[in-house]
């Protein structure tokens, strides 16, 4: 048996239930791992609430790091004792679990397990957004909404290392200061300023080349107003609510804009793409281009408290659960 945080019915953080579930021996192509750190992400709250429906009951969570304890038939890439991590696999809020070997990644020397769990999903999100969805080039100007969040702090540093001018938004002076310390050339307090007007001022009226917006409903219209003609709006999250666009004509009226709603599920469907992204991420961490901010940790039995803090925008950087 292993301790897990289960969801038996959809709802608020109170539906998260600490339980004992069985964990089997690994089958063909599987690896059993003892988890040492678990990443907390907004997608966890979407699945818990039912916004992203899952078959009930299920174990919450989507990324973690740990140590291999057993391997199944046909697994040659990993052995007991190896340090590994993964992302995008439901069931992470657990002390032990089985994982398909094809979805596991080795943790390189120079990166500890807590760091791997704190950055993998967020860092790979930043990777595909900055390198694949809109390959950021030196001299371009980008806007990152929620720049003091876990993904934001990674992405803004990375974008700055690529040579972009980085504008970020955050709520309050402490978060804007954190954003400026992590790659933002300009940090806008959206609680105190009209961020779209400020972006236009910063860019001399031109607008930015691309907006990365994981906030969703509350910022969508304003984000469109920040773009230059034929710029790209990348809507990749729903922290404030789901975005709906009933009138596509808004894109033409605001400058023949482009709009995309990407997901890592499609960018990392092939293992070679996953390995490429992870290699780039870990190299950026080891080189110092990305400094990791694991701002807070919770015990596994405090998962509900962690969800409340995340949804209330009380966290900055990456948050981990410790089994």
Automatic annotation (TrEMBL):
InterPro entries: ADH-like_C, ADH-like_N, ER, GroES-like_sf, NAD(P)-bd_dom_sf, QOR-like, Quin_OxRdtase/zeta-crystal_CS. The keyword Oxidoreductase applies. CDD domains: QOR2. PROSITE patterns: QOR_ZETA_CRYSTAL. Keywords: NADP, Oxidoreductase. Signal peptide: none annotated. Residues 11-321 form the Enoyl reductase (ER) domain. This is Quinone oxidoreductase family protein.
């Amino acid at each position: 048996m292993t301790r897990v945080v289960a969801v038996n019915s959809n709802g608020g953080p109170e539906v998260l239930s600490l339980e004992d579930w069985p964990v089997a021996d690994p089958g063909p192509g599987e690896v059993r791992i003892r988890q040492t750190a678990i990443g907390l992400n907004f997608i966890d709250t979407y699945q818990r609430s039912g916004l992203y429906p899952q078959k009930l009951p299920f174990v919450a969570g989507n990324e973690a790091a740990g140590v291999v304890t057993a391997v199944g038939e046909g697994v040659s890439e990993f052995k007991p004792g190896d340090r590994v991590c993964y992302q995008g696999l439901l069931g992470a809020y657990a002390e032990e679990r089985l994982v398909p070997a094809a979805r596991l990644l080795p943790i390189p020397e120079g990166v500890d397990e807590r760091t791997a769990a704190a950055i993998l999903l967020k860092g790979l999100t930043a990777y595909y957004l900055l390198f694949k969805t809109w390959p950021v080039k030196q001299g371009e100007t980008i806007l990152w909404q929620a720049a003091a969040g876990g993904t934001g702090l990674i992405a803004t540093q990375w974008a700055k290392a690529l040579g972009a001018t980085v504008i970020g938004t955050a709520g309050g002076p402490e978060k804007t200061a954190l954003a400026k310390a992590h790659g933002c050339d300009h940090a806008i307090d959206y609680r105190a300023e009209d961020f779209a007007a400020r972006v236009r001022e910063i860019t001399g009226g031109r607008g930015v080349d691309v907006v990365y917006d994981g906030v969703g409903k509350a910022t969508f219209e304003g984000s469109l107003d920040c773009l230059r003609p034929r710029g790209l709006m990348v809507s990749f999250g729903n922290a404030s609510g789901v975005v709906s666009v009933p009138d596509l004509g808004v894109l033409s009226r605001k400058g023949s804009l482009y709009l995309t709603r990407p997901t890592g599920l499609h960018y990392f469907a092939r293992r070679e793409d996953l390995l490429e992204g992870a290699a780039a991420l870990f190299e950026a961490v080891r080189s110092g281009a990305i400094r990791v901010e694991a701002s807070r940790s919770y015990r596994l039995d405090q998962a509900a408290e962690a969800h409340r803090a995340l949804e209330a925008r009380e966290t900055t950087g990456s948050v981990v659960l410790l089994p």
